[in-house]
Amino acid sequence: MPTFRSEDIPDLHNQVILVTGGNAGLGYETIRQLISHHPARIYLAARSRPKAEQAISDLKAQNPTFNGLRFLQLDLASFESVKAAAAEFLAQESRLDILLNNAGIMMTPEGLTSDGHEIQFGTNVLGPALLTQLLLPTLRNTAKLNAQARMVMLSSAAHARAPSDWVYKFDELRTPAANRHTTERYTTSKLANLHYAKALAERESRVKIIPVHPGMVATNLHHASTGTFLKPFLYAAICFATPVAKGALSQIFAAVSPDANHGQYYGPIGKPESGSKLAQDHDLQEKLFQYVQSELAEYVEPIA
Ligand SMILES: NC(=O)c1ccc[n+]([C@@H]2O[C@H](COP(=O)([O-])OP(=O)(O)OC[C@H]3O[C@@H](n4cnc5c(N)ncnc54)[C@H](OP(=O)(O)O)[C@@H]3O)[C@@H](O)[C@H]2O)c1
């Protein structure tokens, strides 16, 4: 069984790291564990400035000698915000070693992003894809200096529950998809995370692209969830979840280990997995990737 411990995190000298959703849960914990390995800078991207500032203040208190922690304003539910975040980052940095697409929402009430997409799909899939593609040229340049430069995408074991009769009804992703249960919308978004990362990996030769799922980890992910039965169920289930210090190691492995391979999907901790039958459906993967390219075309050069 592969294993990876916090002590296995390599030296990160000179490296520039961007973690989305860095103010809480797995994102915060990932930054907390990486910070003592001497990166040049870590960008904590978050949609809420007060929450980000609180997280930065806590992290600084634990690491008083580290001066490289920066806030990046980012709302993944808005293409304009993602574009502005990428521009803000690129105005300050010419290097990006690790892009960790960690932020996400789970089983929330129905809604739409600013751009009119189903809220979970827009936040979990389209926003991270746009951020990735806006920063990909910089990741590629960095790969000339650091062959370990990479993008990590958070999926979920729950991707295996994505409903085959809805994957992918792209016209409905331009609606709140109210006819679908919130669990179906979440699992579909996490399947799409996996399809997107695998499709990008097939096209990318310089930057490592690594999808990962952390197992069930005790974070706040369920707090914004909805449903008379679902919400209490999630609150009960979290009592049996992995503590966040250990839970974050799956994505930390994907983000920093030289043993994490390009295009491979990993589960806890560093275990190669193949994903569900739908996840392995190459035609579906391609359809998803082309759909994402068409939705982002106004904001970034599509990838063929
Ligand atoms: N925990 C698990 O068991 C589990 C299992 C499988 C996969 N995952 C995945 O792991 C990732 C991290 O989740 P977590 O468990 O750490 O949950 P969490 O504690 O709720 O953290 C999620 C983070 O994403 C941020 N976020 C949400 N919407 C955003 C938006 N529109 N723009 C920017 N940031 C946004 C949140 O910001 P706010 O604080 O402002 O809400 C928060 O920082 C997610 O992608 C999730 O799907 C988690």
TrEMBL record:
Q: What is the name of this protein? A: Short chain dehydrogenase
In which family does this protein belong, per the annotation?
Answer: Belongs to the short-chain dehydrogenases/reductases (SDR) family.
- Organism, per UniProt? Aspergillus mulundensis
One example of the protein's molecular function in GO is: oxidoreductase activity
Q: Does the keyword Secreted apply?
A: no
Under Pfam families, the record lists:
adh_short (PF00106)
Which keywords has UniProt assigned to this entry? NADP, Oxidoreductase
Q: Which InterPro entries match?
A: NAD(P)-bd_dom_sf, SDR_fam
Q: Does the keyword NADP apply?
A: yes
The UniProt entry, under SUPFAM superfamilies, shows: NAD(P)-binding Rossmann-fold domains
